[in-house]
């Protein structure tokens, strides 16, 4: 898996594959991008307890599955914050996708393996929820790592480890090169003082996002989780 995603002109067609090049002459992060892209190729991992009390209550009240609802909330934040939608075109020039589609994992109880699949993002929660739950049902008995064809280039990774209430998490990738797209893992529910939290780990290349952007990511995510009406 290369660092970032390389696009050609055909990938720019269609609303879901929209890609906008960054104007390097006016970009406030030009020097930061170049430094972390060429000289210090590092990324970072941040694990934060995220309060899901309201979202969990909403899903229970509406008889909905928590996982697709949570993925929708995360996808909304990513669509709002361009630093988490960065990629490279075929000439290595940075830009931003219009949105990223979630690539997520499902667990097989019979043999304790997992598979990953993807669902196209949709701004309408009910459309997205219906599509994701349909995908999960359609592929629930398929085995293997990749079980749904046609994964788009503009995706991010999100998975859950519901058995583990971890306090830190780190993901390694090929040659330890950090990725521009987010890699997200969250863990087990923790009940304390009438609130429910989950550990939420975000991994991202420093060339794509700084600590400020990640802080704003978590701030906005918490706002959505606290306010969303399904």
Report what the structure shows:
With 230 residues, this protein is an alpha/beta fold. It has a single domain (6-227), classed as Chloramphenicol Acetyltransferase, CATH 3.30.559. Helix content is 28%, strand content 26%. The protein contains five helices and eleven strands; from the N terminus they run E-E-H-E-H-H-E-E-E-E-H-E-E-E-E-H. The protein has helices at residues 30-39, 53-61, 66-80, 125-138, 211-227, and strands spanning 6-7, 19-21, 43-51, 86-89, 94-97, 101-108, 113-118, 155-160, 183-186, 190-192, 195-205. The strands form two sheets. Strands 3, 6, 7, 8, 9, 10 and 11 form a seven-stranded mixed β-sheet that branches. Strands 1-4-5-2 form a four-stranded mixed β-sheet, with no helix packed on it. Strand 10 and strand 11 (195-205) form a beta hairpin. Helix 3 (66-80) packs across helix 5 (211-227). The model is unreliable at 1-14 (pLDDT under 50).
Text of the CATH class = Alpha Beta
Which topology does CATH recognise?
Answer: Chloramphenicol Acetyltransferase
Strand content: 25-35%
How helical, in percent, are the residues?
Answer: 25-40%
The structural domain count equals 1
Question: Low-confidence runs (pLDDT<50, min 5 residues)?
Answer: 1-14
Radius of gyration: 18 Å
What characterizes the major β-sheet?
A: 7 strands, mixed
CATH superfamily: Chloramphenicol acetyltransferase-like domain
Order of helices and strands: EEHEHHEEEEHEEEEH
Q: What is the rounded distance between the termini? A: 36 Å
In oligomeric terms, what are we looking at? single chain
Total count of strands: 11
- Envelope shape: globular
Count up the helices: 5
